[in-house]
């Protein structure tokens, strides 16, 4: 599904990714761990097409297409979803307005008919119920006044509505209490655990991986993936830190 080969990227002229390679197949969950400043969030931003994060070398293919040659909205329409460590607030635009426009824009780009208001509301309410989110929050401005846990639940509702093929989730566990962490983990499994979907979880901690079992754990250090293992690698890192022997 996703093939990254010798990817190099910089922000404001400073090289952050220094020859990163990774292959993610459909049906897989990959966790990426690493110290601060290693390039984990930069990887997510480069794949998502965030402005000012410039790929300077290597290649990325998504579903056989050149991902780096696509605009951000085209990447989303192709099935890529980027979850943020700190979801932004959008005053003046309700969740319902935002999500309906986002979904229908993607559907139009894929040659599909847009959903009617009634069809969309039925979908949105079902996703909110599944995440334990009060449906009144769908009417509120996007993330405005939400707690950290509410923002992450809201992001999972967004993901459920958009139905991506590949979700890149940047420290989704950040700021979550135990109940919210379990709800988010259950949401990831419900929405993305499928033979035709895949997940990249960027995280500092083992705790999210207790709920979303990864197939592979990678250590990203100084702009490259230096180690790969199974779930046991995350447990080792939790015990011993990133200075453990390879």
Automatic annotation (TrEMBL):
NCBIfam families: sufC (TIGR01978). Belongs to the ABC transporter superfamily. Ycf16 family. It comes from the Bacteria. The keyword ATP-binding applies. This is Fe-S cluster assembly ATPase SufC. It comes from Sphingomonas agrestis. The keyword Transcription regulation does not apply. Keywords: ATP-binding, Nucleotide-binding. Residues 2-246 form the ABC transporter domain. CDD domains: ABC_FeS_Assembly (cd03217). Transmembrane segments: none annotated.
């Amino acid at each position: 599904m996703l093939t990254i080969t010798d990817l190099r990227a910089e922000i404001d002229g400073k090289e952050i990714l220094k020859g990163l390679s990774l292959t993610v197949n459909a049906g897989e969950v990959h966790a990426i761990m690493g110290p601060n400043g290693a390039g984990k969030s930069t990887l997510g931003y480069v794949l998502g097409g965030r402005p000012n994060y410039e790929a300077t070398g290597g290649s990325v293919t998504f579903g056989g297409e050149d991902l780096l040659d696509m605009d951000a909205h085209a990447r989303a329409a192709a099935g890529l979803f980027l979850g943020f460590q700190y979801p932004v607030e959008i005053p003046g635009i309700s969740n319902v307005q935002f999500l309906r426009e986002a979904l229908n824009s993607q559907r139009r780009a894929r040659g599909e008919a847009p959903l009617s208001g009634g069809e969309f509301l039925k979908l949105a309410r079902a996703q909110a119920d599944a995440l334990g989110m009060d449906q009144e929050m769908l009417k509120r401005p996007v993330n405005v006044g939400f707690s950290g846990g509410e923002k992450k639940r809201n992001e999972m509702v967004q993901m459920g509505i958009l139905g991506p093929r590949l979700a890149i989730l940047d420290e989704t566990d950040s700021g979550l209490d135990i109940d919210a962490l379990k709800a988010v983990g259950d949401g990831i499994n419900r929405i993305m655990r499928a033979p035709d979907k895949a997940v990249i979880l960027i995280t500092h901690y083992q705790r999210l991986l207790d709920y979303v079992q990864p197939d592979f754990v990678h250590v990203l250090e100084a702009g490259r993936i230096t180690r790969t293992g199974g779930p046991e690698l995350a447990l080792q890192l939790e015990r011993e830190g990133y200075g453990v022997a390879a």
